[in-house]
Specification:
Pfam family, one: DUF3850
Strand order of the largest sheet: 1-3-4-5-2
Protein name: DUF3850 domain-containing protein
Order of helices and strands: EHEEEEHEHEHE
Distance between the termini: 29 Å
Helix content: 10-25%
Organism: Cytobacillus spartinae
Radius of gyration: 19 Å
CATH class of the largest domain: Mainly Beta
Number of helices: 4
């Protein structure tokens, strides 16, 4: 199944992605493989200005055509992805399967047990998932412990996600 990954892209890398000269255009993206990237996935790359901590409004779609994850070529837990622009007249067709799907939203909030006992606990949002099935409680427990908390709750919401394609200005 194809996945759409929404990713921040720094201005220098974004400019190389959309360069008018085909010989200067960036066709490989190196990323931490924290999303289990696969050939056929779509990258929704949004230009992000880190110094101002904001998106610029420029974005582009790329399709993953090849992945290298062998540690002799890239660092552990990283991938080098060959990417190609998706022609404007094909974007809607490629995104069509994603236009509407029913997913379940899982939000994880963490607390410290002592603060709950004292009545001063405020929930801290740790992570949100939108998927068909809930991640394992063990993986959530590890994430919560790494964030420095000892108690967590999972809020489950059934939602219908509607996605719309907006032509780039």
């Amino acid at each position: 199944m194809r996945t759409i990954h929404e990713l921040k892209t720094w201005p220098e890398a974004y400019s190389a992605l959309v360069h008018a000269n085909l010989y200067k255009r960036k066709t490989v993206d190196l990323r931490k493989n924290d999303r289990d990237f696969k050939v056929g996935d779509v990258l929704f790359l949004r230009e992000f200005e880190p110094e101002e901590a904001r998106y610029t409004g420029r974005n582009t779609y790329r399709i993953v055509t090849h992945i290298v994850d062998a540690e002799e070529f890239v660092a552990e837990n990283f991938v080098a992805m060959s990417i190609l622009p998706i022609p404007e007249n094909q974007i809607k067709d490629i995104l069509e399967p994603f236009d509407q799907e029913s997913d379940i939203r899982f939000d994880v909030h963490a607390y410290k047990a002592m603060e709950i006992a004292e009545g001063t606990a405020e929930p801290t949002f740790v992570k949100g998932y939108t998927m068909k099935t809930m991640p394992s409680v063990e993986s959530i427990r590890e994430m919560v412990q790494q964030a420095g908390f000892d108690t967590f709750e999972i809020t489950v919401t059934n939602e219908t996600v509607k996605r719309y394609y907006v032509d780039e200005l």
